[in-house]
Design a protein that fits this description.
Length: about 150
Protein backbone atom coordinates (compact mmCIF):
# COMPACT_ATOMS: atom_id res chain seq x y z
CA UNK A 1 0.00 0.00 0.00
CA UNK A 2 1.05 3.58 -0.46
CA UNK A 3 2.76 5.38 2.39
CA UNK A 4 2.20 8.81 0.91
CA UNK A 5 -1.03 10.77 1.07
CA UNK A 6 -3.34 9.95 -1.80
CA UNK A 7 -6.33 11.94 -2.99
CA UNK A 8 -8.87 11.02 -5.63
CA UNK A 9 -10.51 13.76 -7.63
CA UNK A 10 -12.22 14.36 -10.95
CA UNK A 11 -9.86 14.73 -13.90
CA UNK A 12 -9.66 18.01 -15.77
CA UNK A 13 -8.36 19.00 -19.18
CA UNK A 14 -5.09 20.03 -17.49
CA UNK A 15 -4.54 16.33 -16.66
CA UNK A 16 -4.78 15.04 -20.22
CA UNK A 17 -1.05 15.11 -21.04
CA UNK A 18 -0.25 13.02 -17.95
CA UNK A 19 -3.21 10.70 -18.60
CA UNK A 20 -1.88 10.13 -22.13
CA UNK A 21 1.62 9.41 -20.82
CA UNK A 22 0.32 6.82 -18.34
CA UNK A 23 -1.97 5.32 -21.00
CA UNK A 24 0.93 4.94 -23.43
CA UNK A 25 3.10 3.30 -20.75
CA UNK A 26 0.37 0.83 -19.85
CA UNK A 27 -1.30 -0.24 -23.09
CA UNK A 28 -0.22 -1.54 -26.49
CA UNK A 29 -3.21 0.20 -28.06
CA UNK A 30 -3.60 3.36 -25.96
CA UNK A 31 -6.51 5.74 -25.94
CA UNK A 32 -6.02 8.92 -27.92
CA UNK A 33 -6.19 12.50 -26.66
CA UNK A 34 -9.60 12.75 -28.38
CA UNK A 35 -10.92 9.77 -26.40
CA UNK A 36 -9.93 11.38 -23.09
CA UNK A 37 -11.49 14.70 -24.13
CA UNK A 38 -14.66 12.88 -25.21
CA UNK A 39 -14.89 11.19 -21.80
CA UNK A 40 -14.48 14.53 -20.01
CA UNK A 41 -17.33 15.91 -22.15
CA UNK A 42 -19.56 12.83 -21.78
CA UNK A 43 -22.36 13.51 -19.26
CA UNK A 44 -22.59 9.85 -18.20
CA UNK A 45 -18.82 9.41 -17.82
CA UNK A 46 -16.65 9.97 -14.77
CA UNK A 47 -12.90 10.22 -15.13
CA UNK A 48 -11.27 10.06 -11.71
CA UNK A 49 -7.57 10.43 -10.95
CA UNK A 50 -5.47 9.33 -7.99
CA UNK A 51 -2.85 11.86 -6.93
CA UNK A 52 0.11 10.89 -4.73
CA UNK A 53 2.60 13.52 -3.59
CA UNK A 54 1.22 15.96 -6.20
CA UNK A 55 1.80 13.38 -8.97
CA UNK A 56 -0.99 11.80 -10.99
CA UNK A 57 -0.55 8.10 -10.21
CA UNK A 58 -3.53 6.50 -11.95
CA UNK A 59 -7.01 6.96 -13.32
CA UNK A 60 -10.32 5.21 -13.78
CA UNK A 61 -12.91 6.07 -16.41
CA UNK A 62 -16.42 4.75 -15.82
CA UNK A 63 -20.00 5.17 -16.97
CA UNK A 64 -23.02 4.86 -14.68
CA UNK A 65 -26.23 4.21 -16.59
CA UNK A 66 -29.51 3.13 -14.97
CA UNK A 67 -27.74 1.59 -11.97
CA UNK A 68 -25.10 -0.23 -14.00
CA UNK A 69 -21.46 0.79 -13.73
CA UNK A 70 -19.28 0.10 -16.76
CA UNK A 71 -15.55 0.36 -16.11
CA UNK A 72 -14.12 1.76 -19.34
CA UNK A 73 -10.45 2.16 -18.52
CA UNK A 74 -8.23 1.77 -15.45
CA UNK A 75 -4.50 2.38 -15.39
CA UNK A 76 -1.79 2.94 -12.81
CA UNK A 77 1.52 4.59 -13.61
CA UNK A 78 4.29 1.95 -13.59
CA UNK A 79 6.02 4.02 -10.88
CA UNK A 80 3.04 3.38 -8.55
CA UNK A 81 2.19 -0.24 -9.33
CA UNK A 82 1.46 -2.59 -6.43
CA UNK A 83 0.79 0.36 -4.13
CA UNK A 84 -3.01 0.02 -3.98
CA UNK A 85 -3.80 2.80 -6.48
CA UNK A 86 -6.04 0.67 -8.72
CA UNK A 87 -7.92 -0.82 -5.79
CA UNK A 88 -8.38 2.63 -4.20
CA UNK A 89 -9.79 4.03 -7.44
CA UNK A 90 -12.09 1.08 -7.97
CA UNK A 91 -13.35 1.19 -4.36
CA UNK A 92 -13.91 4.94 -4.59
CA UNK A 93 -15.92 4.69 -7.82
CA UNK A 94 -18.01 1.77 -6.54
CA UNK A 95 -18.80 3.55 -3.25
CA UNK A 96 -19.79 6.74 -5.08
CA UNK A 97 -21.94 4.74 -7.50
CA UNK A 98 -23.64 2.92 -4.62
CA UNK A 99 -24.81 6.31 -3.37
CA UNK A 100 -26.38 6.78 -6.82
CA UNK A 101 -28.25 3.46 -6.86
CA UNK A 102 -25.63 1.02 -8.13
CA UNK A 103 -27.07 -2.40 -9.01
CA UNK A 104 -24.21 -4.02 -10.94
CA UNK A 105 -20.73 -3.32 -12.28
CA UNK A 106 -19.14 -4.70 -15.46
CA UNK A 107 -15.83 -4.60 -17.25
CA UNK A 108 -13.75 -6.32 -19.88
CA UNK A 109 -10.15 -7.33 -19.22
CA UNK A 110 -7.56 -8.98 -21.43
CA UNK A 111 -7.52 -12.71 -20.71
CA UNK A 112 -3.73 -12.58 -20.23
CA UNK A 113 -3.71 -9.60 -17.84
CA UNK A 114 -3.47 -11.63 -14.65
CA UNK A 115 -2.54 -8.65 -12.45
CA UNK A 116 -5.73 -6.83 -13.45
CA UNK A 117 -7.84 -9.99 -13.10
CA UNK A 118 -6.46 -10.47 -9.58
CA UNK A 119 -7.34 -6.87 -8.70
CA UNK A 120 -10.90 -7.19 -9.97
CA UNK A 121 -11.44 -10.53 -8.25
CA UNK A 122 -10.14 -9.04 -4.97
CA UNK A 123 -12.82 -6.36 -5.40
CA UNK A 124 -15.58 -8.96 -5.77
CA UNK A 125 -15.82 -9.26 -9.55
CA UNK A 126 -16.55 -12.69 -10.98
CA UNK A 127 -16.19 -14.19 -14.43
CA UNK A 128 -19.41 -13.75 -16.44
CA UNK A 129 -18.27 -14.66 -19.92
CA UNK A 130 -15.74 -14.22 -22.69
CA UNK A 131 -15.70 -11.88 -25.67
CA UNK A 132 -13.84 -13.65 -28.49
CA UNK A 133 -11.23 -11.58 -30.34
CA UNK A 134 -12.46 -8.46 -28.50
CA UNK A 135 -9.20 -6.51 -28.74
CA UNK A 136 -7.76 -5.21 -32.00
CA UNK A 137 -4.84 -7.66 -31.80
CA UNK A 138 -7.29 -10.59 -31.58
CA UNK A 139 -6.93 -11.33 -27.87
CA UNK A 140 -10.08 -12.40 -26.04
CA UNK A 141 -11.59 -10.33 -23.24
CA UNK A 142 -12.98 -11.77 -20.06
CA UNK A 143 -16.26 -10.20 -19.00
CA UNK A 144 -16.26 -9.69 -15.24
CA UNK A 145 -19.21 -8.52 -13.19
CA UNK A 146 -20.38 -7.82 -9.69
CA UNK A 147 -23.95 -7.50 -8.42
CA UNK A 148 -24.94 -5.09 -5.65
CA UNK A 149 -28.57 -6.08 -5.06
Amino acid sequence: MINQDMTIRAATRRDIDVLLAIEQECYRFPWSRRQFVDELDNPIAALDVAVVDHQLAGYLCSWLICGELQIQNLATSPHYRRCGIGQALLTYVIERSQQQGLLAAWLEVRENNQAAINLYQACGFKLQGRRKKYYQDGEDALLLGRKFT
